[in-house]
Amino acid sequence: MIQINWYEKNKTQAADWQSEAGNPPPKAVVIADDTTKADEAYRLACEGTALLYRGDFQNAKQLLQAITRRVDRKPAKPVETMLEAFHQHRARQIGRANITNKVLIELKYGVCDLPRAPDVKVAVQAALTMDGHSLDKLPARLVLSLRELLGMVGAHEWRKKGVAIQALRSTIHAYYGVYSPVRGEYLDLIDQAPLNQPQVAWDIGTGTGVIAAILVARGVKQVIATDNQPRALACANDNVQRLNMQTNIQVQQADLFPAGKADLIVCNPPWLPAKANAPIEHAIYDPDSQMLKGFLNGLKTHLNEQGEAWLIMSNLAEEIGLRAPEALLGWIDAAGLQVIDKQDVAPKHAKATDQSDPLYAARAKEVTSLYRLKCA
C-alpha cells in the first residue's frame, strides 16, 4: 500500500494510506486533538493540510461536522440553466469531499484506540477485503479519512440490515462500494414488465444481483449475471446464496456480455453521462454513455431470434441537459433495434420532492422507463 508520512513525537512517522477514491496521501499533516478549534481546522483543510486526530473520537466527529458546516455555508453562484446547476453542484461536491477528507484517523490492526471510539475492525476488514484482494491481517498502522471510516461503518450496518425488496419478499445486502438498490421504482418495472417465458436471461452489470434475483422469482430458470467489479461479483454471489438461487443464477466476470446468446437481456446502466470521481459513483455516472452504447450495440450479436432486451433508464440526463432528448432513440435505431414497448414510473425517492436540492427542477420531472427492445 502507499505510505503516508508525518512528524510526531520528535520523529517522522509512517503508516499505510487508504483512500477509496484513490487520492494520494496529503503531503502536509499536523496533529489535532480536543483543543483544536473548528475555524483553525477549516483553514488548514482549505489550504490542503490534513489533521491527524489524537483526541476523543466523538470530538473528532464533532470537528468533522463543524468543518462540513463551514464548507456548506459558502453560497452557490447564480446559474441560468440546469446544466450549469449540475456542473456547479458536482464541483461543490468534489470541493466538499476534498476539504472534509482532511480529518484523518489512525487504526492499529483495524482498531481505533481513541477514547470513546466504536469497534470498527469488522467494518474495515469487510471494506478492505471485498475488492477481490483478501488480506491475511489488517496493516499494523493504517491512516484514512474519518469521513471514509464512518462510511465503512455505516455501509457495514446497512449490509447487515439489508434492503427490503418487495418483489422478492426478502432483503438484498449491499457490500461497501456496491450501489444499494434503494430506488425501488425501477425494480417494480422489472417485476411488472411482460415476460415471454425466456429460457435464458442475462443481467448485465448486476451489482448486488437484485435484478437477476427478481427474474428468477418471476420464473426464469437460468440467469447469467455479469459485472466487472470484484466487489460486485462477491456481493452478487453472496445474495444469490442468501436467496438460495445458486442453481438458477450464475455470476460471471465480464465487461458487458458473457459468451453465447440469450432470450432476454436486461441492463440498468448508470443514468448520467458524466465523470465518476469515486468507485461507488460508477453506478451513477457513465462517461460519454460508454456502457449504455456498448450494451445497445452488442444486443444484435447476443439476442436469440425473437429475443428481447430490457433497458432501464431515467430521463434525468435529458432534463439536466447532459443528453439531447432524441439521442437515446437515435442510438437504439443505429444499433438496429426497435422499441416495442415502454413503461414509465415516477420516482419515489426523497430528492424528488426536496425543493432545496440544486437539481430539484429536473428531479421533479424525472421519469424512470423500461424500454422493451427487439432487433429491427
TrEMBL record:
The record's listing under Gene3D superfamilies reads:
Vaccinia Virus protein VP39
| Entries under InterPro entries matching the protein | DNA_methylase_N6_adenine_CS (IPR002052), N5-glutamine_MTase (IPR050320), SAM-dependent_MTases_sf (IPR029063), Small_mtfrase_dom (IPR007848)
| Listed name of the protein | Class I SAM-dependent methyltransferase
Q: Which GO terms describe its molecular function?
A: nucleic acid binding; protein-glutamine N-methyltransferase activity
The keyword 4Fe-4S is assigned to this record? no
What is one Pfam family matched by this protein? MTS
Which intervals of the chain form a coiled coil? none
Keywords assigned: Methyltransferase, S-adenosyl-L-methionine, Transferase
Q: Where is the Methyltransferase small domain?
A: 197-314
Its GO biological process terms? methylation
Q: Which superkingdom heads the taxonomic lineage of this protein's source? A: Bacteria
